[in-house]
Amino acid sequence: MSTDQSPILSIAIPTWNRATYLAETLKQLTSELRSVNQPTVEILVSDNGSTDKTSEVIDRCHHEGLKLTSIRNSENIGSDANIAQCFNLAKGKYVLILGDDDVFVDGGLKALLDLLEKNDYGVVCMRSYSFDSDFSKEHPGGEGAPQFFENVDNFFKKLGPLITLISVCVINKELLPDVDASVFCGSNLVQVHLVARAAIAAKRNVFFNRYLIACKRNNSGGYSFSKIFVANFFGIMETYIGSRFTEKGLKNLESRMMLGFYPFYLYKMRVYGDNELTKRDRLIYEKRFKGRWQYEMVLAPILSWPRPFAVFWGALSTLLGRIAQGDFRRGCAFAINKMRQALGAGSEV
Question: Which residues face 148 on adjacent strands?
Fold first, then answer.
């Protein structure tokens, strides 16, 4: 491909005051680019008015030969607007909004590009895992072939919470030629609109059954989980019900989230949160799910039972839900790495 053609993939990274993480993300991207035809990939960094050493990190990458386009906002315009700006400015056929603390695993970028070059897709969702310190050592292992979907209901059910994760959903921008992503600001879920629209517009979507993206664990917050990932998320998804995404599809997605996603976060709330926080969250869940057996049997006990029983039920529900959703390998890897860390800390005492 000649350099005057548009890239196949734009990797756009919104960032703000996380220079250390950004440096590691760009370092791994530089390594990954060595194994691909580099003109096929555009690297874009949108700095949201950082006051740390983010500019120095970007300049150093330039000097070390990484071809990237950088934008620096004069002030912090908010995470939603920065994500939207990344999508709007990307020049590639496909766009991946990559978190500034998330990385491609070794060989991950090549695997993705090999898929994108073969056919046209609306959305390609890559499997991800969380890591604490060393993404290579904490990789769950295993292989998996791409799984193709022509039925949008089934695709969204397969993705479940991954619809909300910016770092795993590759969006075909050519299917959204007149979309200004900034109109979706305000929900903390700009990317959900983009994923939903591209997936619905496409003939085929893909779930990559292989861990290609590593996400830094426990490295975000400052928001109401229940408001954003229950009320806001399903409020958005309801607006896309039509000929291809149906009421039944929405119900199936709700079930997927109640069984395989929410139990873990409610469990953490009961372990670390206060009773008042739990009461507020219970109202959000009740309004959305009350009367559904998944809510009454799985979520309501975690929200309302006395704390020791709620914590036990939350842990058990999380384990069973992840086994049922095919995340058992990731859970085992997490447990093994935690044991290694504990043993390592103990040996230093």
Answer: 206
Give the list of residues 6+ apart from residue 125 with CB closer than 8 angstroms, or none.
158, 159, 162, 163, 168, 169, 170, 205, 206, 207, 208
This prediction has a pTM of 0.92
State which H helix or E strand residue 31 sits in. helix 19-33
Cβ pair 153, 246 in contact under 8 A: yes
Q: Which of 82, 84, 80, 91 is nearest to 41 (CA)?
A: 91
- Residue pair 13/44 in contact (Cβ under 8 Å)? The answer is yes
SS3 213: strand
**One-letter amino acid for residue 128 of the chain:** S
DSSP letters, 35-85, are: TS-GGGEEEEEEE-S--SSHHHHHHHHHHTT---EEEE-SS---HHHHHHH
| Parallel, antiparallel or unpaired: strands 146-149 and 205-216 | antiparallel
What residues form DSSP beta bridges with 115?
none
**What 3-state class would DSSP assign to 20?**
helix
Position 279 scores a pLDDT of 84
Tell me: pLDDT of 41 over 90. yes
- The alpha-helical segments, DSSP class H, found in 185-292 are 190-201, 225-226, 233-238, 247-260, 262-272, 275-289
Contacts of 251 (CB under 8 A, 6+ apart): none
CB 185 within 8 A of CB 78: yes
The per-residue pLDDT for range 204-235, each reduced to its tens digit, is: 999 999 999 999 987 666 678 999 999 999 99
Residue 293 phi, psi (nearest 5): -65, -30
- Report d(CA 95, CA 345) in Å as an integer: 41
Neighbours of 113 (CB within 10 A): 19
Q: CA quadruple 320, 332, 161, 21: dihedral positive or negative?
A: positive
Give the number of other CB atoms < 10 A from CB of residue 250: 18
DSSP 309-342: HHHHHHHHHHHHHHHHTT-HHHHHHHHHHHHHHH
